[in-house]
Specification:
This protein is an all-alpha fold. The protein contains 5 helices and no strands. InterPro entries: DUF2834 (IPR021362).
């Protein structure tokens, strides 16, 4: 895969990772507001829902640890990937980091 193709792929994945989760959360937020008790109740409503949330939480923590450990790499705006992971989720933060990392490689070349 070429460098340009990687850039576009990571950017497309970041866009999907932003739009798909928010397309579900924003309507819920507009309907219920920031009702954390209800959010928690819906998270643990079923085992499959709790499974999915636990998986996302562990993945998000893994992405944040990865970003903290990657200090040897010169990745511009790496903090945006951490913020994106914490505010949206790892489906946005990880491909955003990979995009920024590839962008940094391009600038070094």
């Amino acid at each position: 895969m070429t460098h340009e193709a990687k850039l576009y792929a990571y950017l497309a994945l970041a866009a999907l990772g932003l739009l798909l989760p928010l397309s579900q959360f924003v309507p819920w937020l507009l309907e219920h507001g920031l009702h954390l008790g209800l959010l928690w109740d819906e998270i643990i409503q079923s085992r499959i829902s709790a499974f999915a949330w636990a998986d996302v939480a562990v993945t998000a923590l893994s992405v944040v640890v990865l970003l903290a450990a990657e200090t040897h790499r010169k990745v511009p705006y790496r903090w945006l990937a951490a913020l994106g992971t914490l505010l949206v989720g790892p489906s946005f933060g990880l491909p955003l980091y990979l995009f920024l990392r590839e962008l940094g490689k391009r600038e070094l070349a």
